[in-house]
Specification:
It comes from Pseudohongiella spirulinae. Helix content is about 30%, strand content about 25%. The chain has about 350 residues and is α+β, with helices and mostly antiparallel strands. The longest helix is centred in the first third of the chain and has 20 residues, at about 60-80.
Length: about 350
């Protein structure tokens, strides 16, 4: 999990609606060009926080706020939500196998990129794994809804695995459309938040806003410097329950970056002394059992960082580190100590560039 260092605790206590925050942003705007402005709201079943240094001259405060809201609403409710029954994703999930379904360029692009990461990771990133996630009680509205044991037997796991296959998906970018060869269902929660951060970043770039910190559900897109000339300061969270603690501080050096993290320390359950993570291995159909507690990835865009952080958390540290080094990726792993007492940090050579101070 990653957040701004200066707003470390604040991001866990959002209480104001988007409209209220917008008017606070508008009314409190001073004349001095050195202010950092903050906007918070809800999207994709989570919260977002946006910080910008000054305002571009090409748009008004309201236009900028409206532009953010409209884009996030479209990506969530109209295109990629599994909750909204009329979203493009929900409609595709209900479609019959074998038929091409016309979709937006945005949805086709995200599915196209998803399949790329599936191939890259050998299938550990799979946007069709939802049936297994749901059965283990980690899906939408699943917790507490099971009338029998939360742990499925092997026969049920095998049956659900037959519904999981990214290879059953086909995508066309021109024209934008999707097809499934059998009845699989898509869940883009492991990549869509990163993409949303990229969309807002592209919007800011288009209107001349060149210094920003965008956080959507823990996935970041950062560019530029703050008014005092310092870089935006993300921090890696220590992988433990309770009050968030800082594990490591990152130096973004003013670069345009996407940053994402994933971990098993906040979403899990225990039964008969065994801890079950929400990270489901599509090859076993079960929660992962390796010692990787958290992973953070830095890339040129948040979509890439989001997808790889999700995949690496399923793959485990050894496979992930080898793949990351092979592709020159910046990845940071927090691994449980062999004796179970504490954690150890490991990172790729590319990630060292962003460490404020190597632990």
């Amino acid at each position: 999990m990653i957040a701004t260092l200066q707003h470390w605790l604040g991001r866990y206590s959002y209480t104001l609606a988007f409209l209220v925050l917008f008017f606070l942003w508008l009314w409190l705007r001073p004349e001095a060009p050195t202010q950092v402005y903050q906007l918070d709201g809800a999207t994709m079943g989570t919260r977002y926080q946006i910080l910008i240094a000054g305002f571009p001259e090409s748009v008004s405060d309201q236009e900028l706020a409206d532009g953010i809201e409209q884009r996030l609403f479209r990506l969530d409710r109209e295109l990629m939500s599994t909750y909204a029954p009329d979203s493009e994703l929900s409609q595709f999930n209900r479609s019959e196998p074998g038929q091409w379904v016309d979709v937006s360029p945005e949805l086709a692009y995200v599915v196209h990129r998803s399949l790329h990461f599936s191939d890259m990771t050998g299938g550990y990133f799979d946007v069709t794994v939802g049936p297994l996630v749901d059965r283990w009680g980690f899906g939408p509205d699943q917790q507490g809804s099971l009338s029998w044991t939360r742990i499925p037997d092997q026969a049920e796991i095998s049956r659900l695995q037959s519904q999981v296959s990214y290879q059953a998906l086909q995508v066309s970018l021109q024209p934008p459309r999707l097809r499934k060869e059998r009845d699989v269902k898509l869940d883009l929660s492991g990549i869509a938040k990163g993409y949303a951060a990229d969309v807002i970043a592209d919007y800011f770039d288009s209107v001349g806003q060149n210094s920003y910190f965008i956080e959507i559900g823990g996935e970041l897109r950062i560019r530029g410097l703050k008014p005092d000339g310092s870089a935006w300061v993300p921090a890696i969270e220590k992988p433990e329950d309770g009050v968030p603690e800082i594990w490591a501080v990152l130096n973004t050096q003013g670069e345009s970056l996407g940053i994402a993290g994933s971990g098993d320390y906040r979403n899990y359950f225990e039964e008969d002394g065994v801890r079950y993570s929400h990270e489901i291995d599509p090859f076993t159909g079960k929660p992962v059992t390796h010692q990787l507690a958290a992973v953070n990835v830095i890339a040129d865009d948040a979509l890439t960082a989001d997808a790889l952080a999700t995949a690496f958390m399923v793959m485990g540290e050894q496979r992930s580190a080898e793949l990351a080094e092979q592709h020159g990726l910046a990845a940071y792993f927090i691994v449980k100590s062999p004796n179970g007492d504490g954690f150890e940090a490991r990172y790729t050579s590319r990630f060292a560039h962003y460490l404020e101070e190597a632990p």
